[in-house]
Predict the structure of Putative NrdI-like protein.
Amino acid sequence: MAKVSLVYISLSGNTASFIKRLTAYLQEGHADLEVEQVNIKDLVKEGQDFFAMDNQFVAFLPTYLEGGNGVDSGDVEILTNDLAAFIEYEENYKKCFGIVGSGNRNFNNQYCLTAKQYSQRFGFPLLDTFELRGLQNDISRVGDKIAELYRL
């Protein structure tokens, strides 16, 4: 049985909702997968130390930016930096299959920009994106991609 690790940070609850529904989808439709959730916000809040991942994982990142327009006047990541610190810790980025970004399409060029920046920064692919809490078709699309990654 393959262990699927979903590493995420959720501030407003949208990403946490997506992860909860994604976990249920993976457990119901892919019985050969064991799902582990790693909520970075909870680790930080509880004062737990970061740890080296012992298996490959998929990261999930909402978009929280300040300043600029994401194209020519820059931007600054806010509130989600702890996920980057976890990915950097003990070279966890080497075990990351890729990242899934979430955001609000109303922000145009800044939609899922942080996830795109992580992809470039750490050298892993942007696997997919979804808006806000995601729809059921987002859950099944992302879930099937993840299941396929763990079967390779």
